[in-house]
Design goal:
With 143 residues, this protein is α+β, with helices and mostly antiparallel strands. The protein is 29% helix and 38% strand. The chain has helices at 3-17, 24-27, 46-60, 127-134; strands at residues 28-35, 43-45, 65-74, 77-87, 102-114, 117-125. β5 (102-114) and β6 (117-125) form a beta hairpin.
Length: 143
Amino acid sequence: MSDSSTAIQSYIDRVWIGRDPEAVAELVSEDFVRHGPEWEGGDTHGPEAMKQALTGFLAIFPDLTQEIVEQDIRGDKGYLRLKTSGTHTGAPLLGVEPSGTRVEFPCLWEIRAQDGKVAEEWVAYDSLYVMMRIGVVSLPAGA
């Protein structure tokens, strides 16, 4: 396994599956960028911002889990399909107090490593679904 493949697998296992914000500093590069949904603030730059983002997710969804459905790590790129789930029992989300609602949704990741550290992560999931389930947004009547 190459340094890049090892870095990607460690990032997945320790940061996301293991829910360890302290591992971020060790595993991501100084110029790391996470391309996330706009409601999350869009792009997250650097290890400290990523650590804060993960801590924020865990504050909102204390039981957050990422279950790998399929993954393919080759060289400096990793592609994953996951089932993400969590219960909104922690911190407010976009001004909405904890709803106690459990959400489960598919998520796609692309992760790129460089020089033995994760340099970039792209995340895609149905943000509107999550926001609707928790009560942040609702569809107009009749929609």
